Amino acid sequence: MLVRTALTGACCALVLAGITGCQGDDVQPEGARLQETGKAPTPAPGAALAIRKAADVTTSAKSSRTRTTMTMQSDRRVVTLTGEGTFDYVRHVGSLTIDAPKDSGIAGPLQEILTPDALYMKNAAPGIPKDKWIKLSIAGLGDGNLVSGGGTDPGTSFEILRGVNDDVVLVGTEKLGNDTVRHYKGTLDIRKAHDLTPPEVRGPLAAALKTFDKAPIPFDAYLDETGRLRKVEEQFAFLMGPSDGAKPAPTTKVVSGAELYDFGVRVDVTVPAEKDIYVPPAPSTPPAKASGAPAPTGKRG
What we know:
Shape: globular
Helix content: 10-25%
Largest sheet: 12 strands, antiparallel
Order of helices and strands: HHEHHEEEEEEHEEHHEEE
Number of strands: 12
CATH topology: outer membrane lipoprotein receptor (LolB), chain A
CATH architecture: Clam
Strand content: 25-35%
CATH class: Mainly Beta
């Protein structure tokens, strides 16, 4: 219940409260929208290799600032979360500040600290002391925190690019701020990404394999002239329950994005101490009922 409450604050309860499976979806990435307007993607030799190498090239920058976006669509409701933070690609730690939805019951932004093993969240749900953190094990999150925290771990968002399939194409060149970037689109294979990722940062993808084992995941990636990842969008679709035969299973669409900039920035992140982590109270046990026949209440006449 604690996990559900915390992630409801980030509008992500849908991810953990009822996933029965996960698949790629026909959510249209930015590249597809460009194609519809007549700018057809151009096949490019070496495109898949450029995307695959982007993880190592970006890691070599050691750190960056990041802006994250996450858009979720379920039935007629669309929720968008935005965040900002920094990430250290050497220590694999970072922090994010995410704007909470107005109807979440949370006053103020959601604070997160990201590590390879755990996600720490502050101001995550009503009723939890504001000076306490919630600690969630990455291994216990069915998606490896690709979307659970309301913003994808920037390191994981480009490590997953190691699993790029051969269908990647070059859409063209675009401006991102003052920089010219190459825009690629294609699909990703989570298992392939897991197998090609260094063991020390494989934990989130190992957890995600429980959910994202088979279906390809559409993506858009933007690389600068050095081959560093500057922006990425990845498309997910969560099945929220089984199909009843008459209609398909309900699906929640999620588009997760991150923009990386200010490479080499200093990252100051302190993992919360145990005394600062919220521990929910133990559930109370109702008193046991007495067994046997009730005692007589009076004398016989």
